[in-house]
Amino acid sequence: MKSRFKRLLISTIAIGMMMTTIAYAKNVSMNLVYDGKTHAYNASEVKINIDGSELVPEDMPPVIIDGRTMLPMRLIAQKLGCEVLWNEETKQAFVMNDDYTVAFTLGSKKGIKNGAEFTMDVPAMIINDRTMLPVRALANALDINITWDDPTRTVNIGAGGTSTTPVTPTTPTTPTTPTTPTTQAVKVFKVSAPTAATATQAFSIEADSAIYSYEEVYVDNSKVVIDIQNATCGLADKITATNSNIVTSIRSAQHDENGVPYTRVVLDLAGKKEYTVTQSSDKKKILIQFQQTVVDEISLTNRSDVDKLVVGADGALGAKVFTLQNPQRIVVDMTNVQGKVENELSTKGLSYVTAARTGMFDANTFRIVLEVGQLTDFEWEEEDGEFTLEVRKSTLENLSYDIESNVLILDDMKSLDVDDIVKNDRHTEGYYEIILPGDYESAYGYGTLKIGNDVIDNITVSTTNNKTVIRFKQNRYSEYVAEETTDGYQISVKNPKDVYDKVLLLDAGHGGNDPGTSGNGLIEKQLTLAVALKVQKHLEDSGIKVYMTRDSDTRPDNNVRAQTANQVADLMVSIHFNSAGTNTTANGTETLYQVHTNDNSSKLTSLKAAEIMQSSLIQALGTTNRGVKQRTDLLILNATTVPAILVEGCFFSNPGDALKISSEQNQDIMAEAMADAIIEMMDEYRVR
Asked: Measuring CA to CA, how many Å separate 532 from each of 540, 552, 635, 651, 683?
């Protein structure tokens, strides 16, 4: 396998391009799209010479920004024999050869060369869908000779350091036999998972013939990403029955790189784990095996009125910490871990832990249970195979949380009228607030109650301006029902579908560091949000509970958007806009869908939802009807199990479409048409 980060991949980030004229002669006149704006550019052309041969860019010429010459990275890197990788998560481009690995971060003047930081005059940029690098930074980073000839406006690039004398190659110039045969693409058709969560945690990706090129692409500790070159995908888009406490789901997709297909397989992890990636002897399988960690030391001590648990192991533990009641316990679970420590731990001298034990919860999960005799607060961390948990006295009192029923119980310490409670739903920001009608700090104290289940991460109680606020940090969108009981009060955390008859998840596409496409002065992430907020407003009195994936300039992960729909919604509608790059003739509206295995003709399906939405939009906007289209390559549609559609409102690259949708009046018309379609779908068809 090639080393991590050594795959040639330049991402064509979806920023639409509006060009007037590109003249590769004496003058270049064009529009440059970068930093979310369109800039007019008119200057004499810049030529590129590499080792005496002129290099003619195919579609994006060198340009001068802020007095610095910017070169198209992919083209230059390839000609210099370098590989280039784009990491979408970190927005970093990596230029690599045998001697150097250089990282450029979009928008940052700081670069990293073989681990050492350096500073550039201008940052790497995306200009008209192309990654552009400052020429001087590239020269310094790769120790190559780059000179500027002002009379001819030519960048001369050599490969021999500071000397202009040609360097005699030290390696043979005879072409070597390629390591990857130019054969027909293989088909990836099977992923094998363990037979049970207690079995050896080994996964395999199988193709119908030998796999000659694949790579592991590092994203973060929560994923294993494998890219298989020259491979088509015959896998299910998402596999959830993984038989594993480590791998929560497996996702796949097919992409193309310079006309060559590659298949990406993603294993989503519950937490950081050590693993190996190997290949079978016949090269038809890629094997991913998670190494079992051994806990070989454990201690429980008290210092400065803090009880401290320390666990040592020979690898990553991937610990999950949560609480249980009756009796009150702090539980630590570690999957794919075996314990070689004592089962009963001494609690002598401890302040809060009254009993402590360890053991195997099942054949593959090591569990530590700490019983505490009162409300406690705790903090934990894991680093380099060592897990530390500190338990201290809680400043909260007279309350408890039933983790099985997800109910917060408040003892009857002070009179409370539940009808006067104020609710503040901030689901897009990850929390929900219950505001009590007065100061209840004397009854319930202050501080944070750790929960750690799939619904609630923690609950914080605070009092300011004579109001006590109970804030629930959510792991899932929820609705909250406050009731008076015989012993006090309770706040039940419920799935919205248990409270409302019809629930919609409305998705404004892109956002944050993902602008989407652009063109004719429009930026997709801005317009999708503007329209989504208008749709939400039109649905206020419809009887449909509306949740948003975002209501500001943020970027939720697409997998999280789909997962949220599956958890709480009856329907998901995602709003996007289109672009055809330099093709200004493409225009119109289309609605995309995917067939789900659980589709039922007696209920609303994605296809029916798409047909209703498309008809409503075309009638309202008068745009070209591009129809309803099934798409098998979009995660939002593939990873959902509830009806889900993706609207492509119009083309930013088309002047007529762009002019129409730039009008706020037409944006409101589009939003009202979408709201009307959603009401029709959810009124005329069963959603459950």
From this structure: 13, 11, 20, 17, 20
